[in-house]
Amino acid sequence: MLTTLVTVNPMYAYFDVDERTYLELVGASSGGQSTWTADLHYPVLMRLANEDQFTRTGSINFLDNRVNANTGTIRMRATFDNPVGILKAGLFVRIRLADRHAVPRLPYSG
């Protein structure tokens, strides 16, 4: 490998969501038909390791097409604006989905 390219604006945060949370997100009441899975604009909140509040906003722009059979989770990716460049690849963050489901700390990937 000669080089690695990393985007800095926007930044991406990859995270895994358990299948129960995923099913709640798509909405059992809508018969599994949810507009956010088609449009991928579901809102998410983020905070850095030294922050107490989830003040950074972003949205999901990737949803894997399968559930990991070993872990029972599905991979998602959210995008966050980073105009000042304070967010760096490899930082650990906490992600909160709009319905208040917390996702474990995971490193950024650019």
CATH class: Mainly Beta
**Number of separate strands:** 6
Q: What would the CATH topology be? A: Elongation Factor Tu (Ef-tu), domain 3
Largest sheet: 6 strands, antiparallel, barrel
Radius of gyration: 14 Å
What is the CATH architecture assignment? Beta Barrel
Helix content: 10-25%
**Euclidean distance between termini CA atoms:** 17 Å
- What is the number of helical segments per DSSP (H or I, 4+ residues)? 2
Shape: globular
**Mean pLDDT reading:** 80
Strand content: 35-45%
Low-confidence stretches: none
Strand order of the largest sheet: 1-4-3-2-5-6
**Which structural class matches the secondary elements?**
mainly beta
Helix and strand sequence: EHHEEEEE
Q: How many domains is the backbone divided into?
A: 1
Explain what you see.
This protein is mainly β and 110 residues long. It has one domain: Elongation Factor Tu (Ef-tu), domain 3, CATH 2.40.30. 12% of the residues lie in helices and 40% in strands. The chain contains 2 helices and 6 strands; from the N terminus they run βααβββββ. Strands 1-4-3-2-5-6 form a 6-stranded antiparallel β-barrel. A hairpin with a 4-residue loop joins strand 5 and strand 6 (102-109). The protein is globular and about 35 Å long. The model has no long low-confidence stretch (mean pLDDT 80).
Secondary structure blueprint with pairings:
Elements: E1 11-18, H1 19-26, H2 35-39, E2 43-48, E3 56-63, E4 73-80, E5 92-97, E6 102-109
